[in-house]
Design goal:
InterPro entries: AAA+_ATPase, ABC_transporter-like_ATP-bd, ABC_transporter-like_CS, ABC_transpr_LolD-like, MacB-like_ATP-bd, P-loop_NTPase. The chain is an alpha/beta fold. The chain is built from 7 helices and 10 strands. The strands form 2 sheets. A 6-stranded mixed beta sheet has the order 6-7-8-3-9-10, sandwiched between helices.
Length: about 230
């Protein structure tokens, strides 16, 4: 198995006709934890959307979890996304279903059939984020931090090779942000690769790791102290 989980070479990223980022060349190795920082509008979300094929790769070469982004057909996107876990800022839990039913819905949608197997998997991922006791609660009964833990559990359901977290602490207070980061770091220490967009420089200082910056229409690695 290759040590590289994602690579981009001479990539230009577009939102409709507008070039957002240009001439990106980078590699992400298995097991890394990488921050992506930059001002609002600097292209962080466009970068992430390109990685999970919400934006098509039009110019340059890109490979992620063994998929060729430049040649990716629409029918293959669900297969790519089964190998990637995605965590959003706003949780995206279904409000009319319990935590268990939210996670079961994802498993059914990705081809799981056996009730007993689904129950075991849901218990396993909720255990990893410290939410197993909340399984029958509705999303509105949980705090923001608890909802984000469930969202992380959901991202783990299909044992993804890579987790993309787009501002996962953006709606959380500082203490809850630290708790969610501790969950993510533990998942990373257990071998998962994580790429995380964030505005929260306090978190980066507390949990230092490789950092990429979006600025002047490109992405480059920054030394920690200059963040």
């Amino acid at each position: 198995m290759s040590t590289t989980i994602a690579s981009l070479k001479n990539v230009n990223i577009f939102q409709e006709q507008n070039m957002v980022l240009k001439n990106i060349s980078l590699e992400v190795n298995r097991g890394e934890f990488i921050y992506v920082i930059g001002k609002t509008g600097s292209g962080k979300s466009s970068f992430m959307k390109t990685l999970y094929a919400d934006l098509p790769l039009i110019e340059g070469e890109g490979y992620i979890v063994d998929f060729d982004l430049a040649k990716l057909k629409e029918k293959d996107i669900p297969f790519l996304r089964r190998k990637i876990g995605i965590v959003f800022q706003d949780f995206k839990l279904l409000p009319d279903r319990s935590i268990f039913d939210n996670l079961e819905f994802v498993l059914k949608a990705t081809g799981w059939k056996e009730k007993a197997e689904m129950k075991l998997k849901i218990d396993e991922v909720l255990e990893k984020v410290g939410m197993k006791s909340m399984l029958h609660k509705m999303p509105h009964q949980l705090s923001g931090g608890e909802q984000q833990r469930v969202a992380i559990a959901r991202a783990l359901l299909n044992d993804p090779e890579l987790i993309l977290a787009d501002e996962p602490t953006g709606n959380l207070d500082p203490q809850t942000s630290v708790e969610v980061m501790e969950v993510l770091r533990k998942i990373n220490q257990n071998g998962k690769t994580i790429i995380m967009c964030t505005h929260d420089y306090a978190l980066i200082m507390k949990f230092p790791s490789k950092t990429l910056k979006c600025e002047d229409s490109t992405i480059f690695e920054v030394v920690q102290r200059t963040v």
